[in-house]
Amino acid sequence: MTAPPRPTHESPLAPPPGATSGLQETPRPAGTLKFGRCEVSIARREVLVDGTPRPLQPRAFDVLVYLIDNRERVVATDELLDTIWKGEAVQPGSLAAAITRVRKALLDDHPDAAPIIRTHQRVGYRFVAELDVPA
Fold first, then answer.
1. CA angle, 4 then 15 then 119, to 5°
2. Is the Cβ–Cβ distance between 74 and 126 less than 8 Å?
3. 15-68: per-residue pLDDT in tens?
4. What percent of the chain has pLDDT over 70?
5. What CA–CA distance (Å, rounded) separates 128 from 31?
C-alpha cells in the first residue's frame, strides 16, 4: 500500500517561487567541498572521510548537497521532501532515514565529532559545519 501524495505547500522558511529571500545566495565552491575530516565531490557523487570513500545512497547524497547549498538557513522538512523526491509519494520518515545515512557516512553520529547537520525539531535541518574555502 502506498501513501497518498503529499500536498505541496509553501514553507515558511523558503521564499515563494520567483522571489528572493533577501539573503545572499550561498555560492557552492567548485569541485570538492571540504569540511572537517570530510570531502564531498559533487561531480563524482562521492563522500570521503579521512580519504576513505564512504557509501551514501543517491537520495541521501542529494540531501547532503542541498543542505550544503542552503547552509545559511534552516531548510524545512517539506522543502527537502518536495525538492529531493520531486512530487513522489513519500513519508517524512524517508527524509529522517536519509539524514541518518548522511550522518553515519560523515561520522556525524560519533560522540566526539563536531556537528555537521543540526536538527531543528518539527522544522527542518541545517548544515552547520564550516566549509574550507580555498583562498
1. 65
2. yes
3. 434 433 333 345 555 588 999 999 999 999 999 999 999 999 999 999 999 999
4. 76
5. 20
Instruction: Return the ∠ at Cα 82 (arms to 76 and 87), rounded to 5°.
Output: 160
Q: Name 40's bridge partners.
A: 33, 47
Structural domains of the chain, with CATH = 32-127 (1.10.10.10)
Cβ neighbour number for residue 95 with a 10 Å cutoff = 21
Nearest residue to 58 via CA among 92, 35, 86, 33? 86
C-alpha cell at 51: 580519504
- Residue written as grid cell 555560492: 27
Distance of alpha carbon 9 from alpha carbon 79, whole angstroms: 9
